[in-house]
Every structure is written in C-alpha cells, then in structure tokens.
Amino acid sequence: MAEALGLASGVAGLVSLGLTVCQGLLRYYGSWKDSEADVASMISSIHNLSETLTHLDRRITAANPSSDTAKEMQQSVDTCQATFQKLDAKLKKINEKVPPGSHGKLERHIRKAMYPFKASTLAKLQETTTDARQNLHLALSVMHFETTSVAAQKLDDVTAGIAQIHIAIALMKLNRDIRDWLDPPDPSSSYNTAASKRSLGTGNWFVDGPYNLWFTQPSSFYWLQGGPGCGKTVLSSTVVTATSLATKQEPSQPILYYYFDFQYPEKQVADNLIRSLIYQLANQNAETRPPLEQLFEDHGHGLRRPSSSNLLGCLKDMLETPSLKYAYIILDALDECKELPELLKILTTIRSWRETRLRLLVTSRPERVIRENIASLDPVAIMIQSDIVDIDIKTHVIGIFNKDSWWEQWSAPIRNSVILTLTRRAKGMFRWVIAS
User: Fold this and answer.
1) Three-class secondary structure of residue 382 per DSSP
2) Name one Pfam family in it (predicted).
3) DSSP notation for 48-95
4) What are the extents of the domains in the chain?
5) Cβ proximity of 318 and 256 under 8 Å
6) Can the peptide bond before residue 379 be classed as cis, meaning omega within 30 degrees of 0?
7) Averaged pLDDT, 27-32
8) CB atoms within 10 A of CB 278
9) Which CATH architecture is the domain 188-384 placed in?
10) What global pTM score does this model have?
11) CA angle 77, 81, 84 (to 5 degrees)
C-alpha cells in the first residue's frame, strides 16, 4: 500500500513538472512550427508526450496498483523524472535568453531573431521527449496488464495474468536494454525534414518509371547518383513514402532507411547504419527479433559491444526470417559517411547475400571511389540529369509561389519569366533555388 501511495505521489509530481516543461517548450518553439520542419517534428513529439502524461495521470488516479506493480512502475517514473529535469534545465536556459518583461509581438520578434537552432539541439530534444514517452508507456503497459488480470474471475486466470505481467515487464525491460545497447541513430528526423521540402509532383519521373522495376524485381539494387544540391535526399524520402504506401506498412514487408548526414556526427559512422537497420527491422516485425536477442545475450547482455561482422551476421539472420515477404532498404548520401571504405565493405557484404526478397536503393554523389566500388556490385545506375531536375525545379518553384497571394498580383508573362529565370540559373541545383 505504501508503495502505491508513493507511486501516486511521484506520478503527480512527474505530471506537474512534465506538463509545465511541455507547455514552456511549446510556447517557445511554437513561433517556428509552420516554417521549420525539424521544429514542427519536435513539437509533435512534445504534444504526444503531453498527451501521454495526461493519460497516465488519469489512469493512476483511478487505479490501485499492487506493491509489485508499483515497484516496477516506479523504475520507469524515476527514469522519466530525470529526463524531465534535463528538459526543465534546457527550458530555463532558453528563457534566460529572452529579456524579462518581453511580451506579445516583441517577445516573438526576439525569439525569431535567435533562430536558427542547432539541428543537433533539436534532434536531442526530440530524442529526449521520445525516451520520456517510451518510459511512460512502459508504466502504462504494466498497469494495463495488472488491470486485465484483476478483472479475471477465476484463481487460475488471475495466476496466469500475474505471470503475464512479469513476462511483459521482462520483455519491455529487455527491449529497453537492447535499444540502449544498440544505441541506433534515429533516421526519422532526417526523413521528416526531407519529405517536408518536397513539392507535389516532383520526383514523379522516378516514382512513375524506374521505381516500379526496383520495387518488384528480386534482389534489385539501384544507385541514384547526382551532383550536390540536385535533390537526392528529397528523392530518397519520396521513395520511402511511396514504398510505405505500396506496402501499407505490413510487418511482412519492412521498410528500412538511413540518411548519412554531415550535420550529425553519429550519422556519419558506418556501424551505426547496421545498428539502425537492425533496430528498425526488430520494431517492424517481432518475429525477426530472436537473432538480435541472441546477439545481446552473447555479448554479456549488453556489457560488450558487437563488431561490424557480428552486426551484419545478425542483420542477415533477421532478414532470413520466414515470415518476411520482402524487405526494402533505402540509403541516402553515401558520400556523407566519414568511414566510406567501411561503408562500401558493408554494402558489398549485403549484396553478397543475394537475398532475393531484398530490394536495395542508395544515393550518392558520383565520386570515383564510390563509382569504382559500386560498379562491381551490379547496380542499375541512374544519373540524375540536369534536364530531369530542371522539370522538378520548375514544379517546385511554381508550388512555392502559388502558396503566396502576392504572386497572383503579377501578370502571367512576368510570372513565367520569373519561373524560367530561376529554373535556368539553378542549373539543376535545388539547393540554389531554396537559398534564393
């Protein structure tokens, strides 16, 4: 009983602190939610965390958990408390930058003047809020299992229900331990940022053409190459989106993707690619997990780090799970990996499996070392030509201008002249148009 009362008190304090921090972060970052995709993505995470906090508050008020369950839940609550304290410290640091007494428009202008935020800071905030939410879900799951078991009428059912609680707790703890051990970078923030930059109709030259062959051919391997700023990363996100729609996100057809990125040091490490693919696959299809759990056990239950060959062997075994129909892997910006030789060895190994259910697509600049190594892997190489990109750039420019009412004030000849000038001067570089 004492444990349950202590838990309720702890949750009340946690909810109060959590909601205060969430409201403060939303108030601060909300100034850019409509213009910055990375900020919008982080705000969405904070909203989700706030909703989970409110749900936990309602559940703990109505429930009366047993001592064992209260102890298990307390671990998640304590972990989350530490996370909120970090967020609270970050919020106080942010507020110190805004002069006291600033209100309304002045306050918003001050905050806008302080942008841009470091991409790494936004990513860390989103990662922290996601971890907090996962810990809260763990607490809620434990409570749900006990509620379900208590509702049972027969003693045998109650006993079985209690056993299920302990099994579920052990599995959730194992999942959390494995995630912490793998420590995989989250590629979703890169995907969200790239996807938000796409204008409707761009990339159709690939999705309506070569993509269909890549999507359906056994053991297909496509390499999209192009110069800097030609839109490779946005095209990669378009491929991820199209594949998600085509597969309806069925667990038997997992979609694994990764973005190498100069902005994030952790996303430039070759090994982290394998860690991320393994973690994504395990989360999308539970039947693929046994090789990962075995790898974790073989390495002292997370005390030792696995080698690249260990990780690749685990990924191979997971991809051979009988319930998988197909697996799609999309890798963007190989040239932004600081360990390029190691990365090319990983690609060579994956191709050597000749797994007929696997479809692999990569993008990069046409650098000599990449070109020479990938050529030996029998890819379908597609050069993103400037004439193709020009069509997409024109579509992108029109899409941007059509969102602004002032654009309609100009005559059709002037609008066409502006579009043509921007498209020509871009010379196949989306990045130039965005900068302009």
Assistant:
1) strand
2) NPHP3_N
3) HHHHHHHHHHHHHHH----HHHHHHHHHHHHHHHHHHHHHHHHHHHHH
4) 2-182, 188-384, 387-435
5) no
6) no
7) 58
8) 26
9) 3-Layer(aba) Sandwich (3.40)
10) 0.61
11) 135
